[in-house]
């Protein structure tokens, strides 16, 4: 059975007249009759009752017509999705991010991509910068949101934004009275990212504390910024976080003390070097707008 057999059958079933059907199909009537007969022989069912006066669908033919219409509609949908995948505007799109960068902007990015590419299956992965770099080099991610530095000959990157640092603390639990300098918190307990998970970020925080003249007493570590914020909220320590987090972590008990702008961290948009994705271009343009 070939697809043309089904298409021929549907035209005849709609017209119930072989002459009109053959005109619509731009073939002569004898070949059309032969194609319908081949179809009936193949499935072993009589689809039409025919005589010199009229053509009618049998009960089996009526059922077959309904099912063929449904199947051809599904086939058209499959063909459309296949074309969209070929045009690189459908399929699976994988975005990696570090927890300290997840914000309303990323949520809006997903909404934007979903609207622009309705057949797109977007997957979000919270992954450390180190692991994202490896995944990008192996093309296991389509877009990565990481913190500098990024050193790789297999990855392209663009600066998304520069972020400063802030000390975050529970204002109801701290013993510090004059909250005007991070050095006043030298005797507080600190909550940091795990050193093995984010070594460069960890070392940056150690360096900041060193510039203020003390070594932080790190008692808790986490691989997730939300966990760090919750620990601080519960009075289990203070932390140093990117200033941009103030917008997404608004709690009455939390306060943020902005640090010297000499301490900056660059957030980058990274892609595999040979990536030519229309989706990636759209995503980056949206984030940089």
Structure in words:
- 41% of the residues lie in helices and 24% in strands.
- It is of the alpha/beta class.
- The chain has three domains: 3-86, Winged helix-like DNA-binding domain superfamily/Winged helix DNA-binding domain (Arc Repressor Mutant, subunit A), CATH 1.10.10; 92-156 and 267-288, 3-Layer(aba) Sandwich (D-Maltodextrin-Binding Protein, domain 2), CATH 3.40.190.10; 160-265, D-Maltodextrin-Binding Protein, domain 2 (3-Layer(aba) Sandwich), CATH 3.40.190.
- Strands 3, 4, 5, 6, 9, 10 and 11 form a seven-stranded mixed sheet that branches. A two-stranded antiparallel ribbon has the order 1-2.
- Strand 1 (48-50) and strand 2 (55-57) form a beta hairpin.
- The radius of gyration is 32 Å and the shape is rod-shaped.
- The level of helicity is 40-55%
- How much of the sequence lies in strands comes to 15-25%
Q: Could you tell me how far the N terminus lies from the C terminus, measured between alpha carbons in angstroms?
A: 53 Å
**Name of the CATH homologous superfamily of the largest domain:** Periplasmic binding protein-like II
Rg: 32 Å
Assign the CATH architecture of the largest domain.
3-Layer(aba) Sandwich
What is the averaged pLDDT score?
A: 91
Shape: rod-shaped
């Amino acid at each position: 059975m070939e697809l043309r057999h089904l298409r021929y059958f549907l035209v005849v079933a709609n017209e119930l007249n072989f002459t009109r059907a053959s005109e619509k199909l731009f073939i002569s009537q004898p070949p059309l009759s032969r194609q319908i007969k081949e179809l009936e022989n193949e499935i072993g069912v009589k689809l039409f009752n025919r005589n010199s006066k009229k053509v009618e669908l049998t009960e089996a033919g009526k059922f077959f017509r309904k099912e063929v219409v449904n199947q051809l509609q599904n086939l058209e949908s499959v063909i459309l999705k296949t074309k969209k995948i070929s045009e690189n505007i459908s399929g699976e799109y994988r975005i990696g991010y570090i927890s300290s960068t997840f914000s309303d902007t990323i949520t809006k990015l997903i909404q934007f991509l979903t609207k622009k590419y309705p057949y797109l299956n977007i997957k979000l992965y919270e992954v450390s910068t180190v692991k994202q770099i490896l995944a990008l080099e192996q093309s296991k991610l389509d877009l990565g949101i990481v913190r500098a530095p990024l050193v790789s000959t297999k990855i392209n990157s663009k600066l998304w934004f520069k972020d400063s640092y802030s000390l975050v603390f529970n204002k109801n639990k701290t013993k510090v009275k004059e909250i005007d300098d991070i050095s006043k918190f030298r005797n507080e307990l600190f909550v940091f990212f795990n050193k093995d998970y984010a070594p460069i970020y960890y070392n940056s925080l150690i360096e900041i504390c060193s510039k203020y003249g003390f070594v932080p007493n790190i008692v808790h570590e986490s691989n997730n910024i939300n966990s760090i914020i919750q620990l601080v909220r519960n009075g289990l320590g203070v932390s140093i976080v990117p200033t941009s987090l103030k917008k997404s972590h608004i709690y009455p008990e939390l306060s943020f003390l902005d640090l010297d702008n000499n301490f900056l961290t660059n957030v980058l948009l990274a892609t595999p070097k040979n990536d030519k994705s229309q989706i990636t271009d759209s995503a980056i343009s949206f984030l940089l707008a």
